[in-house]
Amino acid sequence: MTTSKNTKAILFDIGGVCVLSPLEAIATYENQNNIPSDWINYAISRGAPNGFWQRLERGEIEMDKEFFHGFNADLRNEELWQEYHTSFRNSKKKLKDVANPTQLGDHVSLKAEAADSRPTNQDRGAQPSNPTRPLDPPQPEATEEESGRPSLSKLAKDTTIGDPVSLESEDVAQKSSNNNVSPTTQQSTSSSSPSPQEATSTLDSLPPLPDIDGESLFWSMMEHSRTPDPYIFPALLRLEKLASKEKPILAALSNTVIFPDGHPYNRLSIPHESDPRSHFDIYVASAEVGLRKPSVEIYKLALDKLNKHDKQRGGSGVKAEDCVFLDDIGENLKTAKELGMKTIKVVLGKTWRAVKELEQMTGLVLMDEKTRRSKL
């Protein structure tokens, strides 16, 4: 197969795409510490745009004691705790009808993925990543009791997981863009707001805020997302090895953080051949450019870099419609699609589907036959 003439560049998110999703670490932490499902993600995402998580990903603050102190405070916001119980967990009131679309995280329901989708040992063996980088190799299967975390099938039944780095819910944003809201609907929404007396009464009746160790949670998320995805990462390695005439420009567009000097995860501490950047022609990291997805400006920056790179290698340049973008967050994909990019949604626990879709878009073989047969 040869590369589709309409695909000059492929852009990858990192967390939840090339490596395992930190959302799994959040779910594990909640499960191990008896914290209500989705509270952590809800608190982080609703802190946008100026929560400590978001500021860290824009490179505005350092990863130090001040950050972890502020991060802990964001996770213990009493107003959000009340909102979480009265709005998010209220089965009679859909979250998209009451939430502020400029702050909400992209809550991705797992209920459609009811089957246990955790890759088997056979799957992992079919496509060995063999990364020469400081990423942990995929580990052997463990039972829920052994691992201390719920299986993806249990998550599918029990929870709805969002993205701690997304600013908006795709569903909410779509609703907010619709100006044909009836007065009855507006009146119903406004009338649902509790009075100060009712709010105080509700707050008094809530369970106490969970005691969350933000620093421990943070590092568990970072450690989990060092492990390469068993399907997309091998596909990336295959793309790297293509002959130049077939190879599209490979780019990363990711919300990232900057680790302290001397930390093992700091890029200056990693040999070049083991640096994730070594797999890409273009690497756009939010904390280094002061922008983060889903802001349209970071996509325009990535497109500008892709265009210049293609012209430097003798090409005619790159436009949005020449690109395929893979991300696990709907709102991030929405911005890319609005600019004209082709998009692929990477589903937690079903990342092999994204590889098959990428094959269809590009005309390239990115999955070995053993894995392909197991997923037909």
Helix content: 40-55%
Largest sheet: 5 strands, parallel
Number of helices: 18
> Structural class, judged by helices and strands?
alpha/beta
List segments where confidence is low: pLDDT < 50 over at least 5 consecutive residues.
91-134, 136-192
- Distance N to C terminus: 19 Å
Shape: globular
- Order of SSEs, N→C? EHHHHHEHHHEHHHHHEEHHEHEHH
Approximately what portion of the residues adopt beta-strand conformation?
5-15%
Task: Describe this entry's structure for a reader.
This protein is α/β, with parallel strands linked by helices. Mean pLDDT is 77; it is low at 91-134 and 136-192. Helix content is 42%, strand content 7%.
Key descriptive features of the protein:
alpha/beta; 7 strands; 376 residues; five-stranded parallel beta sheet
